[in-house]
User: Fold this.
Amino acid sequence: EVQLAEFGGGLVQPGGSLRLSCVASGFTFSSHWMSWVRQAPGKGLEWVANTKQDGGGKYSVDSVKGRFTISRDNAKNSLYLQMSSLRAEDTAVYYCARLQVVPAGTAYNYYYLDVWGKGTTVTVSS
Amino acid sequence: EIVLTQSPGTLSLSPGERATLYCRASQSFYSSYLVWYQQKPGQAPRLLIYGASNRATGIPDRFSGSGSGTDFILTISRLEPEDSAVYYCQQFGDSPMCSFGQGTKLEIK
Assistant:
């Protein structure tokens, strides 16, 4: 069964750091882009970051640039999100998701998040 | 940066009716980059539609997507109580970066 499981959430003080992990199973992890998406309490979904199959390409939303780093270890089937300088507004459920990038023709690709973990909760508060 | 605006914010319909959910983009992009998700309370989002109109594996044919350019639609026909959820559109027009709309809450009376 294809699965993603996030770990590492918790309570952290403003300005602190936390590292989230996501362990993949049931598919060839190294063949897929991966993403982090978060959801603040009672709010909508917010894309956080993507990384290419080899970890060489990393992209993130402006609000976390310079503070969050996405990385992966394909040997361990694991995706990470290193978070630093945390703020109250980073409080959210953080989801790990598999990003499919599939040719849609000769010039374009389909992009979509087809497998999601259950999420891990990060609370930034003093 | 492409901004997605979903409407209406909340939709309340009865079983058997048809729901029409809208997603409008601040600038045009190719339809292969538009995705729809369903999220029920306490659950992770679930992929419904990719490429604006392609149903994901296991999604009933009551769910259909259409649109192009800046205007996209998710239609749910023959509503069932289990369709109560929040529905999000997502764009990859800035691929590989992306963004979500703010969501439409669908209530089945």
Notes: Chain B touches chain A at residues 30, 32-33, 35, 37, 39, 44-47, 50-51, 54, 56, 86, 88, 90, 92, 95-103 (CB under 8 Å). The two ends of chain B are 37 Å apart (CA to CA). Residues 2 and 26 of chain B are 6 Å apart (CA to CA).
